[in-house]
Design a protein that fits this description.
Blueprint (H helix, E strand, L loop, with lengths): L20 H11 L3 E4 L4 H12 L4 E7 L5 H14 L4 E4 L1 H8 L6 H9 L7 H12 L6 E3 L7 H10 L2 E2 L4 E3 L6 H11 L6 H4 L9 H10 L1 H10 L4 H7 L6
Parallel strand pairs: 1-2, 1-4, 2-3, 4-6
Antiparallel strand pairs: 5-6
Length: 246
C-alpha cells in the first residue's frame, strides 16, 4: 500500500454497516483500474483527488462548466493539470443546457431562437454513459466528493443508499470526511484551492449577484462572456447593486 493510504482521522464519521472511505478507496486501488473523477474544483473534489493520487490510482478527471470558456475557470483547471500531469475534460454542465432551454435571462427576441434548438438537459446517468463511452470503459467507476457531514440531506442519502452504488457505478469517495479531514487532504495534496476561494470562500456555484459582482470586478472578460449567453443577467447586477452599475 502506498505511504499514507488508509489514513484514519479521529474526526471521520462512522455509520453502522457502511465501510469507511479509506477502506473503499484501498479496495478500489487494488483493482488497478482507472477511475473517473467528477472534479468541480471545490475543496471536496480537490481532497478526493489527493486521496486517489496518494493511492497511485489512474484518474480520468471531468469538469462540468456552468458557462463554457470562462478564463478564470480554465486557468484554474490548468493548475491542476500541471500539478497532476493529467488532462481534465471540461464539458458544459447540464445546467447550462437547462438554462438555455428555459430561456433563463434571455431577452424576448432570443426566445424563439433558444426554442428552435430544441435543447434538453441530459440527466446524470445519460451524461455518465456518454462520458464513459468516449473517454473510459462502460463499467468504469465514477467518483464524487459528496460528504455525509455536508448537509442533513446528504447524510440521509448516504444512510439510505450507501456511498457505493453498483447499479450506476458511482462512489462517494470521501463520504465520511469532516471539513478538518478535507483540509488535511488538500494540504497533503500539495496544491492550493483556486481563486474561487478568494472571491467567495467556496467554488463557483451560480449566476446570482454574489457570484457575478466579483467576476465583473476581477475578470471583466469573463463577465462579458457570461452576458453573451445570458444578456439579461445585467439586471441581477442592477438589483444587487442598488440600481446602478458603478
Amino acid at each position: 500500500m502506498p505511504p499514507g493510504a488508509g489514513r484514519k482521522s479521529v474526526y471521520m464519521l462512522e455509520l453502522e454497516g457502511i465501510k469507511p472511505s479509506s477502506q473503499i478507496l484501498d479496495e478500489l486501488a487494488k483493482e488497478g483500474k482507472p477511475v473517473i473523477l467528477n472534479f468541480s474544483r471545490g475543496k471536496d473534489s480537490v481532497a478526493l483527488w489527493a486521496e486517489l493520487h496518494k493511492r497511485q490510482m489512474q484518474v480520468i478527471p471531468v469538469h462540468y462548466s456552468m458557462v463554457p470558456d470562462l478564463q478564470f475557470v480554465k486557468s484554474d483547471l490548468q493548475r491542476y493539470e500541471q500539478h497532476y500531469q493529467t488532462h481534465i475534460y471540461d464539458l458544459p454542465a447540464d445546467t447550462f443546457y437547462d438554462m438555455l432551454q428555459h430561456n433563463l435571462n434571455q431577452p424576448p427576441e432570443r426566445a424563439a431562437l433558444c426554442e428552435s434548438f430544441r435543447l434538453s438537459a441530459p440527466d446524470k446517468d445519460e451524461y455518465d454513459a456518454v462520458f464513459r463511452a468516449n473517454y473510459a470503459e462502460p463499467n468504469t467507476w465514477m467518483l464524487d466528493g459528496v460528504r455525509a457531514t455536508d448537509s442533513s440531506m446528504r447524510r440521509m442519502a448516504i444512510m439510505k443508499h450507501g456511498p457505493v452504488k453498483p447499479k450506476t457505478r458511482r462512489i462517494s469517495g470521501i463520504w465520511d470526511f469532516h471539513v478538518a479531514d478535507v483540509r488535511e487532504a488538500v494540504k497533503q495534496g500539495g496544491i492550493e484551492l483556486g481563486i474561487d476561494y478568494q472571491w467567495w470562500n467556496h467554488s463557483f456555484e451560480g449566476l446570482w449577484y454574489q457570484y457575478l459582482e466579483p467576476i465583473r470586478r476581477n475578470a471583466p472578460e469573463d463577465y462579458e462572456r457570461i452576458l453573451f449567453w445570458f444578456p439579461m443577467l445585467e439586471t441581477e447586477i442592477l438589483r444587487g447593486g442598488g440600481g446602478h452599475l458603478g
